[in-house]
Specification:
The chain is of the alpha/beta class. It is 37% helix and 12% strand. The strands form 2 sheets. A 6-stranded mixed β-sheet has the order 3-8-7-4-6-5. A two-stranded antiparallel sheet has the order 1-2. The radius of gyration is 18 Å and the shape is globular. The protein starts with a helix and ends with a strand.
């Protein structure tokens, strides 16, 4: 039988609205003014959640092209989904593209707020500090040398954590690991990118057909 934590995580993966706003472990975000507060989805974000939930449930993947007005919270919304995938699923490589460095830094800060304000009992293990958007946020456990030595001596394999990550790139700071398989690719304000053709050619094929997400 699934534990309560496993059931909660399953519910979060089944419903993005629940993941963002549930009473047990809601997400927190820094608004434009005032202190960090719980996420409250806007009406347009709730409509997006219906689309996202339906695609993940019916197809097992996500393919979205969103033509939108500015400042409706779309990037924030899909960052929630990207963080959800990386923080709840094993071996999930999330890549987020932003046109400019300042936007990439805001996305980076948003991800850290999501993580820092999540309950410790549900928060996945992290490796490193990820002090800027140029360093990936890695969800893996720092395994003590004693556990590694015991494993090498024939003992049980230690808990490595999720082995998932969130990487952010811009036109000025291209992603170093372009050859890696991507499970979730989010391209914020993609219409403004000057290197659209290169990204489509190099990154889209790494998200296997019928799996993962391209937004």
């Amino acid at each position: 039988m699934a534990t309560k934590v496993e059931q909660f995580q399953s519910d979060c993966l089944a419903d993005l609205s629940f993941f963002a706003e549930n009473p047990v472990a809601p997400l927190y975000i820094a608004p434009e003014s005032g202190p960090i507060a719980r996420v409250e989805l806007r009406r347009v974000q709730k409509r997006l959640a219906e689309v996202v939930n339906r695609q993940w449930f019916m197809k097992g993947c996500l393919r979205v092209i969103l033509c939108k007005a500015r400042r409706i919270g779309a990037t924030t919304f899909f960052c929630m989904d990207a963080y959800r995938q990386a923080s709840l699923k094993q071996n999930t490589n999330v890549v987020i593209g932003a046109q400019l460095d300042d936007m990439a830094e805001r996305i980076h800060e948003r991800n850290h707020i999501f993580h820092a304000n999540y309950p410790p009992a549900l928060r996945p293990s992290r490796h490193g500090k990820s002090r800027s958007f140029k360093e990936p946020m890695e969800f893996r456990r720092d395994v003590p040398e004693a556990e590694l030595a015991a494993w090498e001596a024939g003992g049980p394999k230690p808990d490595m954590g999720l082995n998932s990550s969130i990487s952010i790139f811009t036109e000025r700071t291209p992603l170093a690991r372009t050859g890696a398989t991507i499970q979730y690719l989010l391209l914020s304000e993609f219409a403004k990118y000057r290197n659209q053709g290169t990204i489509i050619k190099e990154m889209f094929p790494t998200v296997r057909r019928g799996t993962g997400a391209i937004v």
